[in-house]
Amino acid sequence: MVDTPVVLLNGARQTGKTTLAQELATAPGFQYFTLDDAATLGLAAGDPTGFIRNLAGPVVIDEIQKAPALFPAIKLAVDKDRRPGRFLLTGSANVMTLPRLSESLAGRMEIIPLFPFSAGELAGQRESFVKRLFDGSVGQAMEVSTREDLAARLVGGGFPEAIQRTTDERRGAWFASYISTILQRDVRDLARVDGLYALPNLLKLLAARTSGLLNLADVSRDAGLPHTTLTRYLALLETVFLVHRLPAWSPNLGKRLVKAAKLHLVDTGLACHLIGTDARRLNDDRPLLGRMLETFVVGELRKQLSWTHPRTTIFHFRTATGSEVDVVLEKPDGSVAGVEVKAGATANPSDFTALRELREELGKKFIAGVVLYTGDKLIPFGDKLWLVPLPVLWKE
User: Fold this and answer.
1) Separation CA 134–CA 136 (nearest Å)
2) How far apart are CA 72 and CA 103, in angstroms?
3) I need a labelling partner for 83 at 20 to 30 A (CA). Which of 15, 139, 192, 378 fits?
4) Among 112, 113, 111, which residue's Cα sits nearest to residue 101?
5) Residue whose C-alpha is closest to residue 305's, from 346, 382, 246
6) Are 129 and 394 contacting, i.e. CB atoms less than 8 angstroms apart?
7) Four-residue CA torsion sign, 392, 154, 111, 123
8) Do 136 and 243 form a contact (C-beta atoms < 8 A)?
């Protein structure tokens, strides 16, 4: 907040935004308001300009999406006084997708995404996987043990409250309450309608399809929803950070906009709860384990990219022959790294086919390609290609 008038901590509920904001608000001169409080919300929504005008000193406003009329009022206040650090906002909905809000604070607000805990945070380590991919040192990473229960990690997820629950039953109760709160309150507040009865079933359907290509026609048929309704519901679920789309990569920038995206749940623990699976079933169902592992890796990389400089963009890639690279990372200079995910402890040359095709297409712009697997040996598999144990993803 040293050079920006407004900072927004944006992310799913229960990822620690309020805890972090309250900690920062203990600094001298800070005021803290939460719009989860009905009285405060009434004041802010009833007279947004007066509410903001009467605030002195730096202020924290929690759950800002509940009173969208505050954004124009904050814009007016900032235009009169652009001192850095005036407003720290938190939001459990992606305000940049909400009508009329995306332009209100353009150039005046920095957005910091907050995700569920990363694997590195849970292990007390700062991840450097993306850096290693692009600086050429991924082949020198230390070998690590893979004896942990991978399925248990996927079922637990990364939400702070969920990982503290020691039994499947208690964790399941938390996830059930979490989903109910978001769908019954947050989504309805955003949509301003009550007829969203199909959302819980749609969310379960999407969880079963996590890491798959998003075929709207298929989802519309299976969910029994008109295409226009499905499109709207998907936008709502993305707005409250329950699902996200992984766009397709292509060397042709225009084609990226029309190729099918992949869909992922924000957290594997949430996805496993929605489809009713536990660690034992994951271990027995290898295709399901593979899909959840891919969603896990995509989620971990999205978290790491939130603090990676320069800005790096994440995609998936499907070759003309139908083979796929699960993750493509691209820097602004056009340099690219590819990541394949394999839920097995062995690998063979065919696992690198799509990465080789990507390497041949890009030439010098291809920096590295790795296949993450559940074995414990780091093995070179050709020029700029490595077989890498999964835990390297979150080790220093």
Assistant:
1) 6
2) 9
3) 15
4) 111
5) 246
6) yes
7) negative
8) no
Q: What is the CB-side half-sphere exposure of residue 113 using CA atoms within 13 A?
A: 18
pLDDT at 133 over 90: yes
Rounded Cα–Cα distance for residues 175 and 190 (Å): 21
Task: Select from 238, 229, 249, 15 the least CA-distant residue to 112.
Answer: 15
User: What type of residue sits at position 392?
Assistant: V
In this prediction, what percent of the chain has a pLDDT beyond 90? 71
| Structure token digits, residue 379 | 């093995």
For 6-114, the fitting CATH number among 3.90.180.10, 3.40.50.300, 3.90.550.10, 3.40.50.80 is 3.40.50.300
| Encoded amino acid at 192, one letter | R
Please report the pLDDT score of residue 103 as a whole number. 63
Which residues fall within 8 angstroms of residue 101, CB to CB, at 6 or more apart? 68, 71, 95
Judge whether 159 and 117 are in contact, CB under 8 Å: yes
Q: What is the distance between the alpha carbons of residues 395 and 393, in angstroms, rounded to a whole number?
A: 6
- pTM for this one? 0.93
Cis bond leading into 389, ω under 30°?
no
Handedness of CA 272, 275, 279, 284 (dihedral sign): negative
Q: Which of residues 96 and 328 earns the better pLDDT score? A: 328
Q: Is 323 left (phi over 0), alpha (psi -120 to 50) or beta?
A: beta
pLDDT of amino acid 195: 67
Structure tokens at 200: 């819980």
Helix crossing, 268-275 with 168-181: angle to 10°? 100
The burial class, CB within 10 Å (0-12 / 13-18 / 19+), for 108 is middle
What is the residue extent of each domain of the chain?
6-114, 119-394
Structure tokens, 67: 């009173």
* Interaxial angle between packed helices 227-239 and 216-223, expressed in degrees from 0 to 180 and rounded to the nearest 10: 100
* Residues 192, 263 contacting (CB under 8 angstroms): no
Whether residue 112 has pLDDT greater than 80: yes
